[in-house]
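Notebook entry, structure prediction.
Reason for the run: the old model in the group folder had no record of what sequence produced it. Starting over properly, with the input documented here first.
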Amino acid sequence: MTTPSADVLTIDVYTHTVRQTPSRRRQLRAALARPVPGLRQATVNYANSGTYEIVPKPLGTCLLLAWDSLEAAEAAWAGPFGAAAGGPGDYRLDGEVARARTEHPDDTWFGWRPSDAGSAPIARDEPLVVVVHGLVKRGNLAGFLRDNVHAASRAAHHPGHRGSIDIHSRPPFENTSVSIWSTLSEAQDFAYAPGGHAPAMKRARAEDTHEAGVYLQVRPLASTGSLGIDRPALPEHPGTTR
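New structure, fully documented this time:
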């Protein structure tokens, strides 16, 4: 029997114009249409700046993949899959899911239930990547977008913010954020301290505004480039091999 293991994520953000988005998405989907050894889950997403700008602007495409292991991911990117995908993104991150939880017991990310099996918790002084996937119920989108404006404003000026983007594969009701933080403690300050994001989370839970919610804490293993800001996201980490 195979021992359950945590998902290893690779996140690649391709920066390009809106006009180039359809061709980039077709290329990535074609690459994923063939069997890829070790690949557990894949999602091809639109990317925008909604995590740190009040008026979001399109940034390009984000490819988020879950793997059996880092070795499987590296082998795939170095082989036919990487060539078919057109190479890696402008920003690249490798990480291991350290914590995975859902808002409701049966929630999934369009059928995917991320695994944190066997992974050690992230310490309060460790850097981390937070991935929050949500599917807003019809009738709650306007309120969600208003709340997101306040959260984006606070994230942009938070000292622990190391870069972030909003992504979604099925607009307009899906919204997923990928944010990088200098420490778990700083990320929790953004999420739970008065102001900013805390009222939005409280309202979402009190009014049950989401069909589904998935929350991931990801331990970064390697990072190359910057994510939405002008400085490298995790300069103290090694670069990715792809």
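Summary: The chain has a mean pLDDT of 91.
The old model has been moved to the deprecated folder.
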